[in-house]
Every structure is written in C-alpha cells, then in structure tokens.
Amino acid sequence: MGNSLKLFKVRGIDIRLHFTFPLILVWAAVQFGALSGYFEGAIFGVIVVSLLFVLVTLHELGHSFAAQYYGVPVKQIVLSPIGGVAQLARIPDKPLQELVIAIAGPAVNIIIAVLMALALLIPNHDLANINLALSGTAGLTFTAVYTYVFVSNIFLAVFNLLPAFPMDGGRILRALLALRLDYAKATNIAVQIGRVFAVGLGIWGLMNGNFFQMLIAFFIFGAGSQEAKYTQIRHKLKKYTVGQVYSADAYRLEPNYTLQQAVNMLSYTKQQDFPVVFGERLVGFLSGSQLRAALQTHSAYEYVTAVMQRNLIPVTPHTDLFTVQNRMIAENLEALPVVSAGDGRFLGIITRQNFNRIHKPSNNNPQEPIIVDAV
Ligand SMILES: [Zn+2]
Q1: Is residue 108 part of a domain?
Q2: Distance 180 CA to ligand 1 centre (A)
Q3: Of the N and C termini of the chain, which has fewer Cβ atoms inside 10 Å?
Q4: What angle do CA 163, 168, 169 make, to 5 degrees?
Q5: Cβ neighbours of residue 323 closer than 8 Å, sequence gap 6 or more
Q6: What's the pTM value of the predicted model, to 2 decimals?
Q7: CA of 148 to the centre of ligand 1 (A)
Q8: In angstroms, what is the span from residue 71 Cα to ligand 1's centroid?
Q9: Residue 313 belongs to what domain range?
Q10: What is the pLDDT of residues 132-180, one digit of tens each?
Q11: 76/203 same-domain check
Q12: Are residues 185 and 53 in the same domain?
C-alpha cells in the first residue's frame, strides 16, 4: 500500500490515509450538499463520513489487537475511500485464532452500538428520523449526526460479516471450515464463495450506479485471489525441510574478528547475516542490521562477540520451511543458523533467498494477507 500518509501510531501500528482518501470527503460534501441543497448538508456529509472512518479505524484496531495477542505483527492500517485494511504479517494457521481475529473487528462495532443505544436512555437524547438523517436532510444537528453514526456503525458490522472472503465474514467461514477440513481446501471453498459474493455485489452496484460498491467488489475479488495464492505457496513449504535448501558454504565470522573485519566481509559477499563460529561450534549470530547499528555505538576494533546475538535459537536440517518462515516473520529475521540435530555442530545458514530454490522468486514474498473492511 504505497502512496499513503501516516497519521499516527498505536501499539506499533501505523495508521495511514491512502492518497485517494480526500476523494471520499469531496464525494460526501457534494453528495450530501446536493441532496439537502444547502452548504449545511455538505458540512454534515464531511462530519459524518469522517466519524465513519473513526469507526472503521476502531474496527481495524479490534482485528489488530487480537492479532498482536496471538503474536502476529501488524504492519499498518490503511484507510481508503472504500474502507479500511489491516495488514498482518501472516494469518495464523490455527483456525480458532483466525476466528477470534476476524470477529474482533465487528465486535468493536457491536460494543459501540450497545453503548450508543444505552446513551439513548438519557432524557431528551433521541434518534432523528433515520431516513432523513441518512440522506443528510435532517439538518446539521447533534441528533442527526448521532443517528447517522449509530446506524452506519451497525451497518459496518453487518456488511463486513458477509461471507465474502477476505472480508470478516469470509474469514470466519474459512476458519470454521478449517476446523473440519484441510486448510488449503477450506481456503479454496471460502475464496469461491467470496467470489460469488463479490460478483453479486459488483452487479448490484452496477444496477444502482453505486461506483464505490463496484470498486469494493473488484477489490474483494482481487484480494481473495491473492490470498488463495499466498496460502497455496505457504503450505507448499510444509513439504520441504531446511536440509534441502540451506547454504552450507556461508561465510562465517570467528570470535576474534573485529567489527571492521565483519564490515569488510559485507563488501565482498552478498551475504548480509553472519554466524559466529568457533571450531565447529556456533557461538552467536550477527545480522547485517545489527552490525550497522553496532558501528554507531561501538568502535570498529571491538570484537564481534561484544555485539553478536548469543541466544538466537538455531534450526536443524529436519525443520520444515513453513515453521522457519513463520519464525522469520515473527522475529523479523532475514536468516537463521543451522546446526546438526545430533551433536549441535554448525552446518550453515538459511536465508530468505534460500526459499527461491522451492519456488519462483516472484512468489517468494507473496503479498501479505490483509483484512479487508468495506464501508
Ligand atoms: Zn473487519
């Protein structure tokens, strides 16, 4: 999701606005202004649509916090005219975890709906006529804004629960299927059903002349296909082991090497991450980024042992690549040391590039899974 503007950060998650976002505000001003025939209507439109996106953001944070709870890093949340997208580093393969993450978004809206309904018990606090409020013709009043937000919040939860993968309902469906079926099969069924919904939504939008709905339909269709491919590629990795792809001839550092010697190594090899090996024994690991960071704070003549990672758990040749990739994603690593399962002897390293031996480089980093929420 390039071309977006960072607004702020919550628990390490960037909240960003897509560069097309202002279009929805312009659309709201024109649409509501034209319907009510007044400048007031335009202001109303901008206010309610902005509040709608506050609801979307809270919804995305619901998904994101649930994901973080399961140790899944969340890269960013992007708001665009058609809704919000939460970009996760991966989707947990445990169906129950995906289920919780998918439900957590709409659950936020349901809590908001309950609170807003309770607030209606306050004397003199009532809803406006819903039809008038939704069309922006109930006037620019607190009650009209409240009514619009109240109704659209409920709509947000309900719409995203449609089983149109990768929207929330589709993810819930996939998770439920995966409790009983093979994961890849469950994904395929959810994606097929999602496509039917996407096409239906597109045709419905075309008949109503609803441009945004058509856009959402296209987006859902595309994102669903992407994730089907992503799932396929990831699960193929389960069939391969570290032993089949790791680099046995990787460059190594020795404990008495200085940071300067490590930097020199970077200049004559493409290798970025180095095991520190003494004899046959792995004593530590120094990634390219750690090395560069260390040079800011340490003298180039210090030994690599002063800054290397000592507790990075190595993998063995029997470890499957699926597990390795999950670890690389979760711990944000580019490479891992490989040791023999029997005597712990150092064997080599496995890097993200080694995965190219399994599939085409273009498939190496399939687009990260996203949770799509439409407004
Ligand atoms: Zn959602």
Answers
A1: yes
A2: 23
A3: N
A4: 25
A5: 315
A6: 0.75
A7: 20
A8: 19
A9: 242-351
A10: 778 777 778 889 999 999 999 999 999 999 998 889 999 999 999 999 9
A11: no
A12: no
